[in-house]
Amino acid sequence: MTRSKRMQPVVRVAEDRERRAAQALGDAQRRLAENEGKLVELIGYREQYAQGFNTAGGVGLDARRLHEYRVFLERLGTAISQQSEVVEQLRRDCEHVRRRWLETRTHAQALDKVTERYRQAERKAQERLEQHDSDERALRAHRKPSRED
Asked: What is the pTM of this model?
């Protein structure tokens, strides 16, 4: 069995690892995008809510309603803060998964290059063998005594 053939299972394993790492990266990027969207929504909601209060100028609000408004804004602020932490953690996770994918990709590409070099060397060896066989046949044909002698 040729070296390139013996490398095939190793190459398949490396390609499978790369594929799984790429899927994990896609999943991580999707989770990050979803959570970034939630953060943007929370910030937008807080801005709209605050703008509505500022537009009304707080006119007609009794102390209880004003307190409820402040508590709600604090809750929104807390939710935004928590969501920001989630997004930052997901960014770190995504970067870690991306680096892992790059490692697996580099490894798979290196194995592909090695296998291709083996194939090229095998082709050259086969071509040399065929050329040698052709030369031998030509030499034998040339050395054959002719019947006319």
From this structure: 0.74
